Amino acid sequence: MDHVKPKRLSEILGLTTQRVGQLSKAGVIPPSTPKGYPLDRSVQGYIKFIQGRGDGKEKEQERWTRLKADLSELQLKKLEGSLIPAADVYQVAFSKSRTVRDALLNIPARVSSILSAESDPFKVETILSKEIRQGLEDLTGKKDAGKRKKNLQRSI
Which residue range forms the structural domain that includes residue 94? Predict the structure, then answer.
């Protein structure tokens, strides 16, 4: 097996001596021995390294093609109405969260006078459970909000 000094290997590969050292540290070509670099394994390692990199232009073209396809798909989804802007989703979620918070915070004001007269813990729990359930159903639109007061008075 022939061995060559770093300067000669750099001339064969068309690289600088410093780049040969970097490739050796990276494991692309075998490390140097006291005799120098093993010529055949060094050249083979460098060839595999170059082949693995591929043509940068081809890779960039593939990337560009994928990006254009992704963009086209997003535009189609937007036209179909199946794509919603994130800002709109955030606004609706924020609004719904505020409504839930407000509804839950209003429960004590709505039931405090009724509960203050109630001494039976089971009735207190029943009234609170119904009020919370009705408040949540109002948020989902399952029940008419006007029925809440009638149902609350019926439970007493």
Answer: 86-154
- Confirm if 114 and 156 have CB atoms less than 8 A apart: yes
pTM over 0.70: no
Task: Kindly report, residue by residue over 42-71, the tens digit of the pLDDT.
Answer: 999 999 888 877 556 777 788 899 999 999
User: CB-based contacts of 132: which residues, under 8 Å, 6+ apart?
Assistant: 104, 107
**Which ranges in the chain belong to alpha helices (H)?**
6-13, 17-25, 39-53, 56-80, 86-116, 121-140, 147-154
Residues 6+ apart with CB under 8 A from 147: 134
Do 103 and 150 lie in one domain? The reply is: yes
Question: Tokens for 6?
Answer: 């770093």
Q: How many domains does the chain have?
A: 2
Q: Which amino acid is at 117?
A: A
